[in-house]
Amino acid sequence: MSTKQNILIVHNYYQIPGGEDTVVANEKKLLEDYGHEVVLYSRNNSELKTMSKVQEVLLPVTTVFSLRTYREVKRIIKEQHINIVHVHNTLNLISPSVYYAAFSCKVPVVQTIHNFRLLCPGATFYRDGHICEDCVEHGLGCAVKHSCYRGSKLQTLMCVITTKIHRMLGTYGKLNYICLTEFNKQKLLQLKQVKPEKVFVKPNFVDCDEEIIPYENRADQFIYAGRLDELKGIKILFEAWKQMGQDAHRLLVCGTGPMEDWCWGFIKSNPKLNIEMKGFVPNTEAKKLIANSKALILPTQFYEGFPMTIAEAYSVGTPVVGSDIGNVGDLIEDGITGYRFKSDSASSLADIIRTSSFDICDKVKDVYTERYTSDENIKQLEDIYGKAK
Length: 389
Description:
Blueprint: E1 6-13, H1 19-33, E2 37-44, H2 53-64, H3 67-79, E3 84-89, H4 97-104, E4 109-113, E5 126-127, E6 130-131, H5 134-138, H6 141-146, H7 153-168, E7 176-179, H8 182-188, E8 199-201, E9 221-225, H9 234-244, E10 250-254, H10 260-269, E11 275-279, H11 283-291, E12 295-298, H12 308-315, E13 320-323, H13 326-331, E14 338-341, H14 346-355, H15 361-371, H16 374-388
Parallel strand pairs: 1-2, 1-3, 3-4, 4-7, 7-8, 9-10, 9-12, 10-11, 12-13, 13-14
Antiparallel strand pairs: 5-6
Helix pairs in contact: 3-4, 9-14
């Protein structure tokens, strides 16, 4: 797609900032840097705190279809001569009415899939300490039974009603999709009305101009950077290091979270563990530590979205050791960009660390250059917009 486009990016911010917000900002800047005109239409769920009683009563209706969104987006499309509407998130305030505003103006819609919400109201395929796909196999009512969205039956019911209504209307079959991995694509295609030819795979990107540190010059260390949470596999990680005993390499643990006290307690009970707790580490500093490590470890216990730490590690030539499930498993190529271990097995992780060669920095950097740079990303994004039209 060589001609410059007028693009409307649509995003509903959650109350707690997250990775989706970063992707929205990065793609907006990327498109503008390459000469496209970009308009951002956004709402923020912090508005929920200041709603009037009437607005609160109407929320179940506006979550399904917001007249405000419909009117405002339709006006923007007409006034700004929009060619493509690119949606990231619609929950709760924007609603799927954004799609119908675009349909009424005969403008194609591209929806980026950041999570699994179209199939799982909780968006993660995870509950009660295990992977769960009950809503795919037995229907969306399972989510209401287990209060899968924010621990609330009422809020989960609102998500379920919205999804069911728009499934019945065939809304999701009219969209073009960007999935971040092939794993995401295969999950999305379980929603039968979605057409395979309208689903594209395009990863997120990171920019990095730094030279990679040669393997032989790196510190004798591995690194974990993320939330200290059982969902993220902290218990598996610490148990693997315990199994390796005194022969274990140093493990840097960067981050905070609900299991921080547990981590300190585990270290106190096993004083010979070669684990260094770093606490909160700013992203720029974390990248430097990753660049100087033998590998980044991601022992996640659920499917994940698209962990940006993987792309960041690849950008500095650092391999990733990750669970063999979901998007993490999909993003790692054994012996090329890292190694996968059996997700629920500390001994499997320990064996990988003991026996694998991590002197693959050049291979990792080559994969980054081929797939995860801004130059490569804009080509893919423009191509998707062209096919969507």
